[in-house]
Amino acid sequence: MKTKIENLKGLRLLNPGPLVLITSKYQGKSNIVTAAWTSPVSHSPPLISISLSTKKLSHILIGNSKEFTVNIPSIELIDKVLLCGSESGRNVDKFKAYKLKEVKGKKVVSPSIKECFAFLECKVIDSFLCGDHYLFIGEIVHCEIEKDYYNDCIDVEKVKFINHLGGPCFTYPEKIVEKKRE
Fold this sequence. Notes:
Elements: H1 7-10, E1 17-18, E2 20-26, E3 29-35, E4 38-42, E5 47-53, H2 57-65, E6 67-72, H3 78-86, H4 94-97, E7 102-103, E8 112-113, E9 118-130, E10 133-145, E11 163-166, E12 169-171
Antiparallel strand pairs: 1-11, 2-3, 2-6, 4-5, 5-10, 6-9, 7-8, 9-10, 11-12
């Protein structure tokens, strides 16, 4: 038997997706924002989308710079990930306050975060105002992952990325199930 839930809570049914730290930089101002709403959009070219609240400083920085970096943290960083999502970059330098090392971008001005096990540098190709969020579509122009954590896919037995289930609930994958088509 199924039960009705609030429409807003229906968004939680589409999670878990990896909880990420989006970094941006414009006119010398760097920022970090926590985001759970990210998605692949296209294979060719490789495009992803990120959705950020109109209340966030990052949507302004990304809107002006037309670049962002998606940093993928492991479960060991969950406290810092939550802090980055609870404070405004207007009031605090999150890199300094939460002791995260800012690494200069390779192909974009936006930095990456050293403590994260992977990152994707993106250039914005389009953006849309969608209700109370901006949807940014970015083309991946450079990405890196810790060598020991990748063999054609993320090795979840070695690194636990954070999945957000909505509200205060989080999980992480522990096992890969491989099934080939018959």
